[in-house]
Amino acid sequence: MDNANIQEYLDKIRNKVVENFKRTTSAPLFGSQDRCTTASYLEWHGGEADRFLDDLDENENKDMRATQRRLNKHT
To answer: Per its UniProt entry, which superkingdom is the organism in (predicted)?
Structure first.
């Protein structure tokens, strides 16, 4: 089967597609969510404050062996 597409036609279609991509705004990759702040969490779960802060420290410092919080707990 022979290719019956003319190069000018292919270029025209490609240019239209590129222009449409330029005009299209991207949608967010995830929905917006309300985030719990440290202060509001501590007010709500007063007895679990240390566990929460430990988890927060772990999540924010995944690439560190000993964070300042971990060192302070051992002194």
So the answer is: Eukaryota
